Structure formats: C-alpha cells, structure tokens
Amino acid sequence: MVFGVLGLNAQTFTYGDLNYEVNYGGTSVTVLDHVNGTDATGTLTIPDHVVYNGNTYAVTIIDGYAFSYCRGLEGTLVLPNTLEEIGDDAFVYCGFTGVVNIPASVEWIGCTPFYGCDGIEGFVVDPANEDYDSRDNCNAVISSYSNELKFGCKNSTIPNGVESIAEDAFSHIGGLTSITIPSTVTEIGGWSFWFTGLTSITIPNAVTYIGTNPFGGCTELEEIVVEDGNPVFDSRNGCNAIIRTSTNELLAGCQNTVIPDDVTRIGNYAFYYCSTLTGELVIPEQITSIGHYAYEKCTGLTGSLVIPNTVVYLGESAFANCIGFDGTLTLSENLTYIGGWTFEECAGFTGSLVIPDLVTEIGSSAFEGCHGFDGKLTLPKGLNYVGSFAFASCSGFTEAVVWAERPPALDMYPFGGFGCTTLMVPCGCVSVYENSDWSEQFINIVEDCTAVSENGDNRISVYPNPTHGMVRIEAEGINNICIFNLLGEKVFESVVNGDAFEFDFGSLEKGLYVIRIETAEGFSTEIVTVM
Prior knowledge:
Layout: E1 4-5, E2 11-15, E3 18-22, E4 28-34, E5 41-42, E6 49-52, E7 55-62, E8 72-75, E9 85-86, E10 95-96, E11 98-102, E12 108-109, E13 120-125, E14 132-133, E15 140-143, E16 148-152, E17 164-165, E18 187-188, E19 200-203, E20 209-210, E21 223-226, E22 233-234, E23 242-244, E24 249-252, E25 265-266, E26 279-280, E27 289-290, E28 301-302, E29 305-306, E30 313-314, E31 329-330, E32 337-338, E33 353-354, E34 361-362, E35 376-379, E36 385-386, E37 399-402, E38 409-410, E39 422-426, H1 430-434, E40 444-448, E41 461-463, E42 470-485, E43 490-504, E44 511-519, E45 522-530
Parallel strand pairs: 4-7, 5-8, 7-9, 8-10, 9-12, 11-13, 16-17, 17-18, 18-20, 19-21, 24-25, 25-27, 26-28, 27-30, 29-31, 32-34, 33-35, 34-36, 35-37, 36-38, 39-40
Antiparallel strand pairs: 1-2, 2-3, 3-4, 6-7, 14-15, 15-16, 22-23, 23-24, 41-42, 42-43, 42-44, 44-45
C-alpha cells in the first residue's frame, strides 16, 4: 500500500490494482493510474467507492493520462456511476472492446480520452446526463450544449444537428471505413479522422472551418468531394482534394488527387503519411509554397524530385521520410531558407546536390540520413548558417564545396558521418576556414582558384534592388507579373503585354519578395529586397 503527499494535504493510496489521490474536501478521490503502469493487463472496472484508513471515498475523477498506452487492458471498460470527470487522454491506445457506457453523473470530459481505442464498438451516454448525449444511437459522445461531437468509434454515425466535429474525434480508429457528415456541420476540427480506414468523404456546403488536414494518414482514401456552393472550400475540376477558395491553397489530398493549375500553395500536412500516393511526384510550376509536413512519409513516391523555381518556401519536414525517391533532387533557385528536417531520411536520392544561391540558412537535420547522394554537395556564397545534423549520415557524397568567403556558422555536428573529408573553399579562404568550426568537420580544406559561381538570367533586369519603393522590370515580351512574399502569398498580379513594367513596393512591409515573370519563353523569377 502506498501513501504520500503530492501537494498540500494531498493523500495518495492504493486500493486493488489502482492508485488514488484524495480530492480537496476529503470525501472523494481521483484515479491516478494502474499499479502496473503501461504494463497493466486484463479487464478494468473502476469502482464507485473505495475504502482507505477507515474512510469511504466516492470515485469522481479519472486523471488525465491515467491509463494511456495500457494496451494490455481489454474487454469492456466499466465506469462508476459516481464519476464526474474524465481527464485528457485518459485511455489512449487501450485495448478495450465492447460498448463504453458514460454515466449520468459525468459533467466534464477532457480532450481525446479514447484516442486510438480501435476495439471499442460503441459509446452510450446515460439519457439522464445533462451535459452529453449519444443521440439517435450514434455510438459517439456529443456535447449537448454546443452540439460538438467529441469522440466516436468505428461504428459511429454523425447525427443531424451536430454542428462541429472535435479535433482528433476519430483519430487512429482504423476500423472506421465510412462516415457521412450531415449538412448541419459547420466546423471540422484538425486531425479529426487521422489514420482511419475511410475510402471517400464528402464535405457539406455548410462547412466553413476545417482545421489541420483532418484526413492525414488515411491511406485508403480515394475520393474527396466538397459540395457545390460551399463559400469557403472547393474541390474544383474533380481534383479529389480540399482547396481553400480564397487563397488557392490545397489543404487535404489523397492518393487520387490531381493538383489544379490554379492552386498556388500546398498546405501543412496536405498529403501527410499518404503512402498510397505513388510514382513520380510532379509539382506544378505555379506552386509558390509547400507547407510543413506536406508530403512526410509519402513512401510510395519514386523517381526524381524537382522543386520548381516558383517555390519560395519549403516547410519543416515537407518531404521527411519519403524513402521511395530513387533519383536526383533539384531545388528551386528562389529558396532562401531550407527548414529543419525538410528531406530527413530521404535515403534514396542520388547524384549531386546544389543548394541554391539565395539560401542563407539550412535548418537542423534538413538532409540527415540522405546517404544515397553519391556526387558533390555545393553550398552557396550567401550561406550564413548550417543547423545541427543538417547533413549528418550523408555518407555517399564524394565532394563538398562551399562558395561563402566567410565561414557560415555551424550548429552541432552538421556533417557528422559525412561522405568525404575534404572541403573545397573559395580562392584565398583556406586559412579562415581552418581557423573556424569547419576544421572540426573536414580534415582537409583546400582552395580552387579556377571555379566560378553561376549567374542568374541576364535577359531580365530588375532595378533598383534593394529598393525603398519603385522597381522597374525589363524583359522581352512580358505577359504577366506576379509578386509573392516568402510565405508564398500572392501580393500583386498584373497582365503586362510589353517589355517593361514598374511596381511600387513602398506600401509593402520590409523584407524579401519574389517576382514571377511570365514571357513567351516561360517563367523566370527574381528576388527583390525591400528596405
């Protein structure tokens, strides 16, 4: 038996297989956890009352995370009729089966208490409960006041009258293969159907809010349809995706998604864990930004990857763990920053890697584990910083060259396990690199006084640059001008039909902007600095 103090006069003790804490007031207790922790097995029946030291206590609260990851708990969970609160993540990934009955006494339920409990077959709320219900035998738990569906199971339906679906409501319920979202729903929380077995989904035209891709990890998902008339979202041209109409941002895709020509942004988590997205990935040339985790764990992607020059922003982990790529990687010439973990563990890339001239920072673990590269790594002249483990375990590189005359700052072990031990630096820069942290990463530092850096397209003139206001753009046969900030947001567009165009940047915030110039020969991009 355990007795202790967790706070002012807070008593803890063990009764049966569970640990308890006496609540304020001294008449009730909170269930803390199982005596065997996550190794607990068997069925779980939580009693109405427990006795300790001659006193009887009502069991009113199940603590947050009390039985999280107790995968060995099985059978039907029995909750006491004295229960008032169920804490956040209380039963995450438990192995329960059967139907869970929510007593009438329950007044508060935290976030995702049954996350990942795929074996549960139903939820039934006592009809006398004043705060929650399972109306129309829906096998889910709904907040009676807000009409929010808080969580469900593989046999749930969503009744008419439900107005919102909570974050993670069905997350990791792999047995959920079909669901109909009724026309009364206006909000779908982020991650709400992650890693379920859904094969198709229709978004009603009343939905005006969608959180972070609700369908990430749904590897069986083949069809996504937004009903006509939705004022915020669409699935234009039968693209099998959810697009935010006002920004042309693709928010959620699936294995059959076709990116429309007028989509300019791929949102955070848009294809997250979509392992059934297969073949060579072609990113359309109008795309300006690819969000965090957009293609992470898309292990079915193969071949080479070209990030078009229209892309000015890559989010963290955008292509992390895409282990199927088995060709070369070509980066947009207009990237200024490569975020952390962007290509981590993309071990199949081969050949050389050129970091574009405008890149000033490379984030932590950006290319860690990319051991398939077997050519030269080229780092640009303007590089200022290389994050920890940025190129760690890139064991296949045979050459490395950096154009920066001043050694970029290094974080921890950016080249640990790198493939070559010799670094080539600009002419006359050997000593400054030898006296920097770079000498701890490379055994030999040599100079090449014959090498030259590549220049941009000299057929296009953009001046003055940097600028405080007016900029003149000159090129033969300009058809269209688009200007984007570094988040990929379009701030200006105009048809030109001439050889010159002027734009006043004076009203925009200071920073870097990308000008996309369309001519008869295609697209070109230039970076402008607004002072």
